[in-house]
Amino acid sequence: MGWKSMDTAPRDGTEVLLRVEMCAGIPGKCLVGHYMPGGHCIEDHPAIDSGWYFWNGIMFDKEARPTHWMNVEDNRPLVYLACPYSHPDRTVRVMRFEAANRAASMLMDRGEHVFSPISHTHSIAESCDLPLDWEFWQDFERSYLSVANRLFLLLIPGWSTSTGVTAEIAIANKMDILITYLSPEEAGVIQ
């Protein structure tokens, strides 16, 4: 965990977070990149120099020399717990809230740094009369997904038809976040 010296950085194409001396004239920036050996990577394309490349394939300029690296996951400290919530029946919403709390507790017991949006927002939404649908909460939840290294999907009834869960899965896939399915039994959720 944390920044490591460049002499220990992987040179197998693995994407890592790089701290660079300067990027676009700004010192001390961080970029996602990978090391590529020199030579021909694609037929009929000119040979490339070996070195560190941005994720989009543009080589670092001389001023952007990487000084340290870390695994991308080390910079995404949270795991995100997804489960269905919205339902016209308040009793169902409360049951889903309690299931999310039990699953979050189990993950915390395992040492995970969990963000459970349902655990966090249910009481706020109810006491402040906020909307309960995905449309209202999506930007909030997307920001937490952006710092998560894994999405745990709690497979309680309603997960496969939930608008929010469907969107969270799509966002996780787009952000290359690992998705792990969590059964109610494994999470200690009583149904």
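Above is the first protein from milestone M3; the second protein from the same milestone is given next.
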Amino acid sequence: MPFGGQGGRTATQDGNAKAMYPSWARNYHTRGCGTWPAETTGTTRYEQLMTAINTDEHFQREVMLGKRIGMYKFRGELGTGNFSRVSLGFHQLAHERVAIKIIEKTGMDEKSIRMLSREIANMDTVRHPAIVRLFEVLETISRVYLVMEVAPFGEMFTRITNQGRYEEATAQQLFSQLVSAIEFMHSNDLYHRDIKAENVFLASADRIVLGDFGFSTREKLQDQMLTTFCGSPPYAAPELFCDDSYLGASVDIWALGVLLFFMVTATMPFVAQTVVGLKTIILETSYLPPSYLSESCLKLIRGILKREPTERCTLIDIRNSPWLQGQTPLQPLPLYHFIPTSTDQQVNELEKRVVDRLGELGISQNMLEENRDKDGRSPIIGTYRILMYRMGTDNPGMESRLQVPSNDPDVNSIALSSPARSILSAARSPFKKEDEEGGAEDEGSGSGSGLEHGTSNNVQSEHEQGVGTTAPSTGNKSKLKKKFSGFRKSKTKINSTASSASAASSSSNKLKKSKACTIL
């Protein structure tokens, strides 16, 4: 078996242990997940692999056929989008499976390139256990490859669609993790703007990660008004329908409320057959919560789903709410999980184990030091991050240490790094605030789930089309097209519950019957 067997890491879903990953001490001569060259030169595994990549005809033929890139061997497709696809990959040196998002650069305009560059920069600088990790960024003339962690249990949307709502005890744990991720992002002036069940992924039955940063933006001023209208209509805050500008924090908090309602009821709070009808219901904040919800849960939902942003719960209010009492916030990951510690500083025990393992593979401390500033653009740093991810997850004491606030200022802050800055020469400096770029630099060019570009032709989400026969008037339709030109397609049905058969069929088709789902 390529990924499992005795000694492999396990995760629990519905009470069943399921081996997902190979063990740390796996036999490195195993050929199940990518052929190792029969004749290699070099004294270390790293040297042998690099020599094969550069000179071996079989390896080069696989690159031409799209079966590998760098140290990664493709093992099958996990999902597709409008402008990208996601494949399961295998890192042949670290022996770890990853998700590789393949984005076609051909046909991308300058605006799309800026959006892609910003997405990569934001992903590479968010260091939190509840946010998907970006390991490495590779680029060819026609494609960009984003190497990320795999979420073996798929989307939260699919889980709720197939199995129904979460019990409140489980929902509290998962929602607390999500709130921790948003707290970290907002404290570092980063706003997601597309929070929904389709973008929350299950790393295990009791751990989630937030992905899809295609519409994320960074604003240095917390009261900076944004003007690009994006996201998914069922999760859209009222101000997105009726105002010319909005606060990034407020729309993220509203989306958290909608998602919480969906988690504990398996239905959407706002249901309509058209976008015009949806707008009316959201502006009226008209929804009917079920009677089985606890009073503390219902109070939190009502506190978040307020029409006026100033009356809405803040993240502090959410964290201190009675419903989340007893839930410990997740702390940001230490910087050494992503960038090796400098040689003149003290090395953590976990990092020392990773560095020792890299040394066994042929990557020396000097090589790490030389590549520190390259971040995800270096295959050496990419290998370091993958091994650190595996060791940090395998180490049973790691999660408990994440609960202890760090005194290291680098842990609680993020800074722009280099990978996104070299996508193309036209995207060298794409990080100006969107309002300085005319307020709509990313409108219609989101690169999130499959780099799905929102245009005026995609005003209605894919499940809205054909749902109802009532069409908006010409005037209203024109205004809505202009207003929601940045809205992304969503799988969440506007006029049905998440447990409907059609929703289940839609999610099943998207996953292509794959047992492993990844960050799209």
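Note on the second protein: The longest helix spans residues 168-187.
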